[in-house]
Specification:
Number of helices: 9
Number of strands: 8
Strand order of the largest sheet: 7-6-5-4-3-2-1-8
Largest sheet: 8 strands, parallel
Radius of gyration: 17 Å
Order of helices and strands: HEHEHEHEHEHEHEHEH
Structural class: alpha/beta
Shape: globular
Length: 214
């Protein structure tokens, strides 16, 4: 079986599994070659994630028919790429950076997810859950941005399920029962995240496999 066919079959299996749970698949394409990305596009994948702003700009310009999500930390001097080209910004944890991104948003509203540190680990990014409400209120005042939900990464050590449950509870409290995106779950823990209420998972190696060619 060819690498290309194996890629399509992996994607179809995962996409079908998530669709049955009404969970959106965000394919992390940051390490994938263009050929692999194109293969998934042709198969029907729309949502992709990049962690380097310039790469997001380049791929969003090349393939505007897809939705390009920004994941990972963002420096203010790269804010223009996200404000102009991102379909969603996943890693918002600084209000000054948010304002810098908003300054480059025009003729639309950019959906934003607040990154929350549910791992209680200072080495992982995200705001402290204790200041989530205050941060969300500040963010909601930034013109051009729309608070769409929360995202987080599971702790590297510790109770993953409890951490995901904590984020779900934070989402429910912040949005008072209204629908909001809950983006949690990666290749090694996405099934637990789905069980705990994730509405969007980010998968890279699980989709593309260990190789990077098709």
């Amino acid at each position: 079986m060819s690498d290309k066919l194996q890629l399509i079959q992996r994607w179809q299996t995962i996409a079908g599994e998530l669709q049955a749970s009404d969970v959106k698949l965000l394919v992390v394409s940051k390490y994938a070659p263009d050929e692999a990305v194109e293969t998934l596009m042709q198969a029907g994948q729309i949502h992709f994630a990049e962690s380097r702003p310039q790469n997001l700009r380049d791929r969003a310009t090349r393939w505007p028919e897809c939705q390009w999500h920004m994941i990972g930390p963002l420096q203010k001097n790269k804010a223009k790429y996200i404000g102009r080209f991102a379909a969603m910004w996943h890693s918002c944890d600084d209000i000054d950076t948010a304002r810098a991104v908003a300054a480059h948003v025009s003729d639309r509203t950019l959906p934003v997810l607040i990154q929350v540190n549910i791992a209680d680990n200072p080495e992982q990014r995200g705001i402290n859950p204790e200041i989530l409400t205050t941060f969300a209120e500040e963010l909601s005042q930034v013109d051009g941005l729309q608070l769409a939900g929360l995202m987080a990464m599971a702790p590297k050590d510790g109770d993953v399920r409890a951490a995901f449950r904590h984020l779900r509870n934070l989402r429910d409290q912040l949005f008072d029962g209204r629908f909001a995106i809950l983006c949690m779950g990666m290749s090694n823990d996405y099934r637990i995240a789905v069980q705990e209420g994730s509405t969007m998972v980010r998968l890279g190696s699980t989709v593309f496999g260990t190789g990077r060619s098709v």
